[in-house]
Design goal:
This protein is α+β, with helices and mostly antiparallel strands and 258 residues long. The chain has twelve helices and seven strands. A seven-stranded mixed beta sheet has the order 2-4-3-1-5-6-7, with helices on both faces.
Length: 258
């Protein structure tokens, strides 16, 4: 019974990981090929079963190639959700002074997003947790600048050459701008999600970063984490989310007063 429950749980997690993506359709196709292989074997069709048997024999390697991004997301899911607890937290043991956002940083980011929202200026702000996102930063312009609302607004100003792309924030610094993000392969997203929203979901599917999006069409502010997106949130909601992510629930009262 335990074996059956564990296998069922594993397949359910795989389904949650792949649903809505192109990889899910590929998995269905591979399963159909396997059923055909079992059928031709039962009918003793030697030639066809040999061909399909060779295909099935390299199936593990093929799956690793086809589902490379999904395997990466699955391992990240294990590392970020199942192996972190309050009593035994590996990040606290091996953080070595990792700098998180301060209250001033959160206020500057929030003020900039609200200002950009009021003028319907599009913005895409990626804030790293533990991963440095160096492979993303090198796709744009390296800045290493102090976080300020004025700088964020000026970078995303439509006539600024750095406005097109994502801003990367890591360890209390704006590390880069005009960076290129991977776009999600999920084909079942709502039609109001533009390319910024899809890029936000894409980077949070592959890394532990969080992303703030300001829509150029509606001016709405959205928040993405772990491959999900909260669409059109308020200023107060954004402050609470950032405080919970980087400072903790103990500072929630302070967040509500900003």
């Amino acid at each position: 019974m335990l074996d059956i429950v564990l296998v069922a749980f594993m397949f359910y997690q795989i389904y949650l990981l792949l649903r809505g993506s192109v990889a899910f359709n590929i998995l269905i196709g591979l399963f159909a090929v396997y059923l055909i292989y079992l059928l031709v074997r039962a009918l003793d069709m030697t030639l066809l079963s040999t061909i399909l048997g060779q295909f099935i024999g390299v199936g593990v390697i093929a799956l690793m190639i086809v589902f490379q991004q999904e395997l990466r997301r699955f391992l990240l899911l294990i590392g970020s959700r199942y192996l972190r607890s309050n009593r035994f937290n590996l990040e606290k043991m091996f953080s070595f002074g990792h700098k998180s956002l301060t209250e001033d940083d959160i206020k500057n980011i929030t003020d900039a997003c609200v200002s950009l929202s009021s003028t319907k200026t599009g913005a895409l702000i990626v804030i790293s947790r533990k991963s440095s996102l160096e492979d993303i930063i090198i796709t744009g312009e390296v800045l290493n600048a102090k976080i300020s609302s004025g700088l964020i607004e000026s970078i995303f100003f439509k006539n600024n050459p750095l406005h097109d792309g994502a801003m990367i924030i890591n360890e209390n610094l704006i590390k880069g701008a005009r960076c290129i993000l991977p776009v999600t392969e999920n084909v079942n997203l709502p039609p109001q999600y533009g390319m910024r929203h899809r890029a936000a979901i894409g980077i949070t599917e592959e890394t532990d970063a969080i992303v703030i999006v300001v829509s150029e069409q509606t001016g709405g502010i959205s928040f993405s984490s772990h491959g999900t997106l909260k669409y059109s949130i308020t200023r107060e909601e954004l402050i609470k989310i950032l405080y919970n992510e980087f400072i903790g629930h103990k500072k929630q009262v302070v967040a509500e007063t900003i």
